[in-house]
Amino acid sequence: MGNTQTAQGIAQIRSAHDVPTTLRRLEDIFKAHGLTVFARIDFSGDATRAGLSMRQEEMLIFGNPKAGTPLLQASPSVGLDLPLKALVWQDEQDAVWIAYNDAAYVLQRHGLSSSLAANIAGAAALLAQAAQ
Hints:
- This is DUF302 domain-containing protein.
- Pfam families: DUF302.
- By secondary structure, the chain is an alpha+beta fold.
- It has one domain (4-131): TT1751-like domain (TATA-Binding Protein), CATH 3.30.310.70.
- Helices cover 39% and strands 28% of the residues.
- The chain has six helices and six strands, in the order ββαβαβαββααα.
- It has helices at 19-32, 43-49, 65-74, 103-109, 118-121, 123-131; strands at 4-7, 10-15, 36-42, 57-63, 84-90, 96-101.
- The protein has a six-stranded antiparallel sheet with strand order 1-2-6-5-4-3.
- The chain is globular, with a radius of gyration of 15 Å.
């Protein structure tokens, strides 16, 4: 568990927990590190309310304005990727995954200086911690 795979700017970590536990761990870790959870989107719950079915899948939108604002000041288009997002879902084999945009990808996508990487790169360690 906790092994990170990255492809096309999307990093994925396998979680040792079910979806609700993974989300709770993420929220607790974010709070402990002074991050704000701005929204929680329950894709599978929305599907159920629409009369459809799908495996559990939810997204947390989170961040810290002190860290994100300098990126937005350097390139307003980074607002497409900020606040940060963590997508948690259960696959066909009942494995649970956390996916997020790799910090290097976000910087490259918006033409930002690597000096701004530290503003968002630390989230990866928190996501990995939640997966353990």
